[in-house]
């Protein structure tokens, strides 16, 4: 079976993990955690990075510190992995799901603008949803599949309504918009090092920010809000959302390889697009001129995608459908879904992600291309 996306641990991972075991620094503090934070901040072009237990916990703390409160509304694209939607609920808020663009599958910022202009009101320096009177406190642009949201439009719009931006950059580590790294635009950016991401720590995440005070606060909240190094005094409700040193050691080794991984992913993407271009109805995800994607997970629209999925499964190629849109999940079905044509539903029904591990050989990509061409022939 050619797997969809598996980790590639071919660098210094063993060496650094052994170092942790040899020195007993296996738990929630240690030099690799510090290194992982420093190297991530520098790679993503932000002042500070705070390591977390996973991307979901990073989003939780980022949204909490962005000021999301019980009863608020938070804007999210209807096509996303479920984690940011869950986090909004952890905080006692609800989502406003906005449909996505038909070609990039990112948050439709034109539609968002219309929603804010027609359905919301700006007063006392805040934005309120007219029908419910609820405050819209944050926007989470999810940079889906390594592609990026139209930030030229989104950032001024958010600013004009005084809505905080928390980027979900979990899939777009290494992608850039106007040559600036994903995760460096909002008040916070969040990363994930889950096993299927472009680099992995097994499980892990990162909060990125240029705000030094908020960075301190994020570290504090992710480490049980303990004030003193010795005394067990906690000045508020904290969380145990730390990344452990042994996993950070894997992360440091992975970061060393990240530029090579990105090059490989982009190469895979080119091979697929070229090799599949003559198939009727085939449409890969579009990136706009300002975006250079990390090509994290190659996904395209295919005719009869369900049958193609089964055919490839039978022929040793693992593929995956896109996420079920949030408005179709029970926890979010009664939230606002602002759309004109339910593009998200359409994208979901017709997309398939293809194998693109950073360790995949060109011959394996050629085999997948051959099988897909055979199916349509
Ligand atoms: C868009 C998106 N947001 C958030 C997450 C959550 O990250 P984690 O699995 O590390 O909690 C993921 C990946 O899993 C994701 O793809």
* Total DSSP E strands: 17
Total helical segments: 11
Counting helices, strands and paired strands, the structural category is alpha/beta
Small-molecule binders here are: pyridoxal-5'-phosphate
Strand percentage: 15-25%
At the fold tier of CATH, the topology name of the largest domain is Aspartate Aminotransferase, domain 2
Task: Please provide the ordered H/E string of secondary-structure elements.
Answer: HHEHEHEHEEEHEEEEEHHEEEHEEHEH
The fourth-level CATH homologous superfamily of the largest domain is Type I PLP-dependent aspartate aminotransferase-like (Major domain)
Secondary structure: helix percent: 25-40%
Question: In the CATH hierarchy, what is the class of the largest domain?
Answer: Alpha Beta
How would the blueprint of this fold be written?
Layout: H1 13-23, H2 31-44, E1 48-52, H3 55-65, E2 73-77, H4 83-90, E3 94-98, H5 109-119, E4 120-123, E5 126-129, E6 136-139, H6 151-160, E7 164-168, E8 176-177, E9 180-181, E10 188-192, E11 205-209, H7 212-222, H8 245-276, E12 283-284, E13 291-292, E14 299-301, H9 305-314, E15 320-321, E16 336-338, H10 343-350, E17 351-353, H11 362-376
Parallel strand pairs: 2-3, 2-6, 3-16, 6-7, 7-10
Antiparallel strand pairs: 1-11, 4-5, 8-9, 8-13, 10-11, 12-14, 14-17, 15-17
Pyridoxal-5'-phosphate is lined by residues 54-56, 80-81, 83-84, 142, 168, 170-171, 192, 194, 205.
Give a written overview of the molecule:
An 8-stranded mixed beta sheet has the order 1-11-10-7-6-2-3-16, sandwiched between helices. Strands 12-14-17-15 form a 4-stranded antiparallel beta sheet. It is globular. With 377 residues, the chain is of the alpha/beta class. The protein contains 11 helices and 17 strands. It has 2 domains: 13-255, Type I PLP-dependent aspartate aminotransferase-like (Major domain) (Aspartate Aminotransferase, domain 2, 3-Layer(aba) Sandwich); 258-376, Aspartate Aminotransferase, domain 1. Helix 8 (245-276) crosses helix 11. The structure holds pyridoxal-5'-phosphate. Pyridoxal-5'-phosphate binds at residues 54-56, 80-81, 83-84, 142, 168, 170-171, 192, 194, 205. Pyridoxal-5'-phosphate binds next to helix 3 and helix 4.
């Amino acid at each position: 079976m050619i797997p969809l996306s598996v980790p590639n641990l071919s660098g210094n991972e063993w060496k650094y993990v052994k170092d942790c075991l040899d020195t007993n620094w296996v738990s929630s503090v240690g030099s690799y955690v510090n290194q992982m934070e420093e190297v991530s901040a520098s790679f993503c072009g932000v002042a500070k990075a705070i390591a977390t237990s996973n991307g979901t916990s990073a989003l939780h703390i980022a949204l909490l510190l962005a000021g999301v409160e019980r009863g608020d509304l938070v804007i999210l694209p209807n096509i996303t992995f479920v984690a940011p939607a869950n986090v909004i609920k952890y905080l006692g808020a609800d989502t406003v799901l906005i449909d996505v663009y038909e070609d990039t599958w990112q948050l439709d910022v034109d539609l968002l603008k219309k929603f804010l202009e027609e359905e919301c009101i700006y007063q006392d320096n805040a934005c309120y949803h007219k029908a419910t009177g609820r405050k819209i406190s944050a926007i989470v642009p999810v940079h889906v599949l390594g592609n990026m949201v139209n930030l030229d439009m989104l950032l001024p719009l958010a600013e004009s309504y005084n809505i905080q931006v928390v980027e979900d950059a979990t899939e777009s580590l290494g992608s850039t918009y106007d040559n600036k790294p994903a995760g460096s635009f909002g008040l916070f950016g969040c990363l994930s090092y889950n096993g299927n991401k472009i680099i992995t720590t097994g499980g892990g995440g990162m909060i990125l920010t240029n705000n030094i005070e908020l960075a301190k606060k994020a570290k504090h909240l992710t480490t049980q809000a303990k004030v003193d190094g010795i005394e067990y005094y906690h000045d508020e409700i904290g969380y145990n959302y730390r990344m452990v040193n042994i996993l950070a050691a894997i992360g440091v080794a992975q970061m060393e390889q990240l530029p090579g991984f990105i090059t490989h992913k982009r190469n895979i993407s080119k091979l697929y697009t070229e090799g599949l271009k003559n198939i009727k109805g085939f449409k890969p995800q579009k990136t706009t001129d300002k975006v250079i994607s990390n090509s994290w997970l190659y996904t395209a629209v295919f005719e009869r995608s369900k049958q193609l999925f089964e055919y490839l499964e039978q022929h040793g190629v693992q593929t995956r459908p896109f996420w079920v849109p949030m408005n179709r999940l029970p926890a979010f079905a009664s939230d606002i879904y602002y759309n004109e044509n339910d593009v998200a539903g359409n994208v979901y029904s017709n997309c398939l992600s293809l194998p693109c591990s950073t360790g995949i050989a060109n011959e394996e990509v050629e085999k997948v291309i051959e099988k897909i061409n055979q199916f349509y022939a």
